[in-house]
Amino acid sequence: MEKPSKSYSYGETTYAIEKFNTQYLTTLEDFKNPNGSSSVSKARMNYVGYGVSNFDNYNNQSLVPLPYAQSEVTQIAEGLSNLSRVETFINEQSTKSTFKQTAPHSQVIHLATHSEVSERDPMFSTVYFSKSTANSDSTFDDRFFAYELFEMDLSNEMVMLNSCESGSGSYIQGTGVMGISRALRYAGAKSLILNLWSVNDMLASEFAVQFYSHLNEGKSKAEALRAAKLYSLNNKNADPHFWGPYMLIGNTDPIVKPQQNKNLAMAGAFIFYFLLMVGLSYLTQRRIIFSKH
Fold this sequence. Notes:
The protein is α/β, with parallel strands linked by helices and 293 residues long. The protein has two domains: 10-256, 3-Layer(aba) Sandwich (Rossmann fold); 258-293. The chain has helices at residues 28-32, 69-79, 96-102, 146-150, 180-187, 201-216, 221-235, 240-243, 258-292, and strands spanning 45-51, 86-90, 106-112, 115-116, 126-128, 143-145, 158-162, 170-172, 176-178, 191-195, 246-250. Helix 2 packs parallel to helix 6 and helix 6 (201-216) crosses helix 7 (221-235). The chain is globular and about 80 Å long.
């Protein structure tokens, strides 16, 4: 919103995210109806997380370890107290075949791994999974290409791909940006949370955990993303390099509906009241027994 006095004085200026929620729309249809369909999800799972930390068995030497990917996926799952059906697949469990089998049946998908956008052929942009076996004969059984995502039927409420440059891609005249984001949207994902550039593994993990904690409170996706950015800005590192790459594409509806929060609060109050009455009844009976003696 205003220029800092020095190029490195990130904390002394004001950013647009401090005043506004942000959302990207990729089609005119989204512009007409930015929140999309309000249909109830029929997914069997509320959240499925996939995390790969170790890439030792890969021929691609650029795939550095992601030591925080495992804890990122599990911490998110543990923090989603308002979603009852959560599942995680870590390292050896997080395979391409597992993703194919489980991803179409989840309301929310979270991936903490490496991805790579192909500038030469966007359809070969890649999301990396764990190898099915250490000595697998298949060269590509650990890679999910964009063209394969085009063939899936996802229909997820949200997909967050917390990986390198997952939101970038080549611009093709008349088509737009082609890459992983276009493939996921075409497959049916209502909204995406993606990265425009690479971020430190630890900070990326902390950002994702913060984002989901706000989703769990019933905030919309745009509000939760803004809250996570403000947390990083005020408590971690004000440099936009660390919190700026995250973008929301598509639907902004909350994952945890306000009514759901209200029902849970009412259920909690009822349980507390019931236990209180049982306790008071027990104490009253004890007092009567002792008074008789």
